Amino acid sequence: MQIRLISARPWDVEADVLAVPITSDEPSDESLAELDRRLGGALGSYRQVGELAGKPWTSALVWGAEMGADWLLGMGVGKAEAFDRVIALRLGAAIERRLIGRDVHRLGVYLPSELLSGEGMDAAAVVEMVARGVVEGMADPNAIYREGVEADLPPQLDELVLCVPDGDVVKLTAAAERGMIMGEGGNLARRLSQRASNDVSPE
């Protein structure tokens, strides 16, 4: 999988799906408001009826309009002030798991500024943990028990695009790559731990 960091507006991200974190606070992000306008007010309407009000890990998939991505996935993350490294990690994994069984090869994730400045947090930390979460979410921990059996799996991405408006692309790319490496290492460790000792190569 290739990972790419862009400093652009979310509606310019070209992807099969653009994932957008939705907080339970009253939305204040101007880019999110513009996305909602381009979607004909769908996000606001979903919030109003309680379908996508920011409750952690609730989600809705909306057909994209006037944007580079074909679909938009809104994913609840709770209160913005409570957003930390653990939630950032879970966000990445939740996005990937929500797309199980979907035909997705290019995934974009928009990270608004309100989630990049919490206590002990900065853009690099958020990018690293989200990238790690997406990679870890791509692994199916039960695959070893279903060998030879057809099942819906998390999409195996060709490209992950992280969108951070006004971010330092070089610094954040390094953070994203670090998260990807950590995620791949974690996936490998889990696969090996599920194997019998006589089934694991000494290498």
CATH superfamily: Leucine Aminopeptidase, subunit E, domain 1
Quick one: how many beta strands?
Answer: 6
What's the N-to-C terminus distance? 24 Å
Structural Rg = 17 Å
Helical residues, percent: 25-40%
What is the overall shape? globular
Strand order of the largest sheet: 1-6-5-2-4-3
The description of the largest β-sheet is:
6 strands, mixed
Based on the structure given, which CATH architecture is correct?
A: 3-Layer(aba) Sandwich
Report on this model:
This protein is α/β, with parallel strands linked by helices and 203 residues long. It has one domain: Leucine Aminopeptidase, subunit E, domain 1, CATH 3.40.220.10. The protein has 5 helices and 6 strands, in the order ββααββαβαβα. Strands 1-6-5-2-4-3 form a 6-stranded mixed β-sheet, with helices on both faces. The mean pLDDT is 90.
Name its key features.
globular, 5 helices, 34% helix, 203 residues, 17% strand, Leucine Aminopeptidase, subunit E, domain 1, alpha/beta, six-stranded mixed sheet
Question: Can you summarize this structure?
Answer:
The protein is an alpha/beta fold. The chain has a single domain, classed as Leucine Aminopeptidase, subunit E, domain 1. It is built from five helices and six strands; from the N terminus they run E-E-H-H-E-E-H-E-H-E-H.
